[in-house]
Design goal:
The longest helix has 23 residues. β8 and β9 form a beta hairpin. This protein starts with a helix and ends with a helix. It is an alpha/beta fold and about 475 residues long. It has a 7-stranded mixed β-sheet with strand order 2-3-4-1-5-6-7. A 3-stranded antiparallel β-sheet has the order 8-9-10, with no helix packed on it. The relative contact order is 0.14. It contains 17 helices and 10 strands. The structure holds guanosine-5'-diphosphate (GDP). Guanosine-5'-diphosphate (GDP) binds next to α2.
Length: about 475
Amino acid sequence: GDIADGLTRGVETTVNTVSEAFFEPVIRLGVTGLSRAGKTVFITSLVANLIARGRMPALRAAADGRIKTAWLQPQPDDTVPRFDYEAHLAAMTGATPFWPEGTSGISELRLSLRVQPRGLWGGMTGPKTIHLDIVDYPGEWLLDLGLLDKDYATWSRETLARIENRDEARVYREALETANPGAKLDEVEAKSLAGAFTAYLVAARESGFSDCTPGRFLLPGDLKGSPVLTFAPLPEQNFARGTMGREFSRRFEAYKREVVKPFFRDHFARIGRQVVLVDVLGAIHSGPRAVEDLRQAMSDILGAFRPGKNAFLSQVFLGQRVEKILFAATKADHLHHSQHAQLTAITNALLRDARSRADFAGAETAAMSMAALRATTEDRIEKDGRALDVVRGTLESSGKRAAFYPGRLPDDPSRLLNPARQGAEAWLDADYEVMRFAPQPLELRPGDGPPHIRLDRAAEFLIGDRL
Ligand code: GDP
């Protein structure tokens, strides 16, 4: 009786573990992008829509009714923070909805799907379980990959050249003039220089610049105040032992070794599918310099997906590879759909350079424009005798609901991306500045996920082939 039961149960447990390991496939989906690109909103809406399965016609498995259920489970990595899905969803879908707090570090969430396999064979075998492990991490961390090939002197030289004429760096440049890096290390001075440099990075990010390394200076997490984050670029080099300059150089190496490498080894190298979210509209609105800078940052980010080019990465990837990479321009609900094709064309053009140079080791790539949580509706109004395609939304600042025209994007992306022509024209300079919409109050019926634009297409590209 009891003993036999116990044994049977024991056997069952073993079989379950084995079957889970062998027969339940896991898709590891990385979600990245620079700060405020829309990662948190994307993951929350994607998961809510997969659980509801109602608003996903372009995800074939959902449209065919083959996704039987979707539910959250404990994630496999016990030491990685859990993505705070419930809190973010409550923010976005509550009675007075608001945008959730954005990504500030790595987090993870496991969504399990019970899926009826496709075709005749699928009809015979019955549903299978597939785990989707979503890993959210700041794109700034990927930019740090570029630091691995650089020593402190090179990084200092390049950074100082870049910030020479930037207003955002004025205070840091002044701080450098009075600094004395050749003198004995003084932690107070070190902290104040690092603080001024961090303030520059923060201001640069706010102005729309994307080339802001070291990435952890912006999103320090629990490293805040530690020596690996207490250094800054210095003009002269070849410092004697015991000086601040020598110590900064040592800390730069420690940053690469203790912060950058472990992230790539422990997290990045295990990702199979990747979405890179890009606030293309925000950069266009900030102006030509920000667009050029975004193009450069994207090219650097893409470098991380070319393990062949980097000895350290080839070593941590160990033959594994990223199979698919999606580049998605977010917040497309700021534009009437008549302009979405232009936005996609610009996103494609932004990446063309990097993509054509890249050997993605066979990864399939695509670009699209989307909105993970649609905050507007479309309309057409008359203005000065002309028909204007507008979007209507509620302003976050005033709570006022109104129609907005963000301006027109060029039909030919090269007009925006060609440095020779930049500055000659301004794009998205009409209403875009004030278009900070609050999420709309929703009345979701059972089976309805939050409203979006092409989130289902994104899901089909990223995981559709595995469902
Ligand atoms: P993260 O820093 O990459 O995690 O970015 P978030 O997901 O927090 O998004 C940053 C901000 O972008 C949000 O607070 C919203 O203001 C805006 N946003 C993100 N997704 C959308 C979207 O689909 N539509 C609109 N209108 N705004 C969005």
